[in-house]
Specification:
7 strands, 3-stranded antiparallel β-sheet, two-stranded antiparallel sheet, 2 helices, elongated, alpha+beta, binds zinc ion
Length: about 120
Amino acid sequence: MSELKLCQGTKCHTYHTQDRLKGQQGNKTYQTRRRSSFYYGNGNFCSLNCQNDWFNDLGDRAINHFGRLTEIKHLTEDNAWQKTHDWNSNDETVYVYVNQITNERRTITEQQYDDRNYTLNTT
Ligand SMILES: [Zn+2]
């Protein structure tokens, strides 16, 4: 059994829905949602609403903590690689990196495609 996760929304428990109302009869409270998985915010939020609540309450602090962008970024050949996939003539999935500037295409493995840390971008 996978462990249940709590929605990280800062106001999740304040929304009056039947599924949030829990506890013993006569002593029920609205509670933070708990699920085996969530669809929003990289699996951290039960709804877009909760994701937005979190960002409105904590987003500025998170950006300042991890580093606020202070200079304009430029798309160049060195950082224009994007992962995508195609189908070959046998209808098999082919994973490729496409450079958005040069249109160069390089085949990559499914493992490289799925690896969030794998990149051809150097800047
Ligand atoms: Zn929530």
